[in-house]
Amino acid sequence: xSTRRAAYEARQRRRANMIAGVSTFxxxxxLLVLVPLAPGxxxxxxxxxxxxxxxxxxxxxxxxFVLDVAIFAWSVPLIFALGLAIALARGARNPALFPLRxxxxxxxxxxxxxxxxxxxxxxGFGIPGLGLPRPWNSPYIWGTVALVLTYSAYVAEVLxxxxxxxxxxxxxxxxxxxxxERDTMRHVILPQAIRRVVPANMNMxxxxxxxxxLLSFIGPVEILRQAGIYKSLLANFTPYVAAxxxxxxxxxxxxxxxxxxxxxxxxxxx
Amino acid sequence: xxxxxxxxxxxxxxxxDVQVLRGIDMAIGQGEMVCLIGASxxxxxxxxxxxxxxxxxxxxxxxxxxxxxxxxxxxxxPIRQRIGIVFQSFNLFPHxxxxxxxxxxxxxxxxxxxxxxxxxxxALFERFGLASHMxxxxxxxxxxxxxxxxxxxxxxxAPQTMLFDEITSALDPELVGEVLDVLRAxxxxxxxxxxxxxEMGFARELADRVCFMDQGVIAEEGxxxxxxxNPKADRTRxxxxxxxx
Lengths: 270, 245
Prior knowledge:
The complex is a heterodimer.
Chain A: H1 4-34, H2 41-48, H3 51-90, H4 98-113, H5 116-126, H6 139-165, H7 168-176, H8 181-196, H9 198-211, H10 223-234, H11 238-269
Chain B: E1 6-15, E2 18-28, E3 33-37, H1 44-51, E4 59-64, E5 67-68, H2 77-80, E6 83-86, H3 98-108, H4 114-127, H5 143-155, E7 161-165, H6 173-188, E8 192-196, H7 200-206, E9 209-214, E10 217-222, H8 224-229, H9 234-244
């Protein structure tokens, strides 16, 4: 029933699959044989891959991960609101708004230029140090603020690139219909720009979810901190491996989804 | 001619070092249809874009109903409701349905409520044979349909003058007719229109006046019969010979 071409391609595919299978199997087998031969393998296995410790600490780690998710969840809307405001400020053309433009440029330079962990330390320890009353001295709040500052600077740049990628003819068409600059931005440019940078922003969210763990350095008992506590308690590194697995369960699907969106977008426009 | 609807006096325009318009004088009367013809780069599109202030002119006057809209600093927003423009590349908003493309400006600029606006817009789609397509997105429409939506979008602002910038040039040949039919309908109801076009047959059939542009000036103008059958200027003859071959 199949054409000569289809038969040939099926044969080629079978061959390629077989080669890929054999080579993958070979590499895996080699790893399984070679790694245990390393002199320190028994010690590493005992301290990183202890099944008992894994089972005992996993529920506690999962519970601590809820705090990571919570911090993530309430920083995302703030990041996008602030990122959008900064992106629009940087694009302001009105001379009266020139200070806003400068502010936007300085903001982006500043918060993109400082390592996240450093900003978490500076904001998370520095601002509560001002002697604010409870609950405003919580490192939980100020650590999150540090994340929001950094990530909104990145998101602002992504959005700005999206806005600039919309062809001038769209703006011309809107202006010629009599729409104001403001309405043109709000109804014509921004909806298209935001859609175009969804994949880039998805990647940003994956990075943010991981960086929430940096708050462990200043206090909140989130998953990394909890893993550290278990490590000290049980004198075993397995909780770190468990924490890594929990992160992967969230970030791998999210990254795949971002890639899927990116591909879909590319196909739609070509 | 009675008071012209649109009048240009000594309009010049340069992009960097290139002088695109070198002193254009023309007047377009109420209900008149003027076709601009000429080679690519002769300044037709730029002239149209100067007529609604999309491109600021360097010098000269653009008088709309006697008011100079080329005055530097003049607020063009209210003027743009009175001059509609349709572009070669449609420029529909891709994230909105055809219907929403048309409704956006009347809603935001004229402040029309949906109650009054929707029946009016539906009637426009009906009239141009697109009623069954108005809920579709631009990428679900053919080029000809998209261009007709672009015309409807401009008409929904109830302009008194319409500018058309080579609106059939980006279309497949079999789709040109349906767009020209729309122009014919507008001509019949007495819309004041200026077209930059390569559709010589159409210009000859319907234009009141044809202006041949060459190197930023109007090299020759007159009724279509005179221009096409008996051109006076050498440049016009050469141009017509090159395209009618």
